[in-house]
Amino acid sequence: MVHLSKSLRALAVVTIAVAVAVGCLAHVF
């Protein structure tokens, strides 16, 4: 259960990072 929780947390962090990156690129262009 703990491993699954860590995986979900990592997935959430990656998703947020991608969203921020896309937002920055969209703002620049």
What would you say this structure looks like, in words?
- By secondary structure, the chain is mostly helical.
- It has 1 helix and no strands.
- It has one helix at 2-28.
In whole angstroms, the N-to-C terminal distance is 42 Å
Unreliable runs, pLDDT <50, ≥5 residues? Answer: none
How many E strands? 0
Shape: rod-shaped
Strand content: under 5%
Number of helices: 1
Judged by helices, strands and strand pairing, the structural class is mainly alpha
Please state the CA-atom Rg, rounded to the nearest Å.
Answer: 13 Å
Q: Mind describing the biggest β-sheet?
A: none
Query: How much helicity do the residues have?
Result: over 70%
Rounded average pLDDT? 90
Q: What series of H and E elements makes up the topology?
A: H
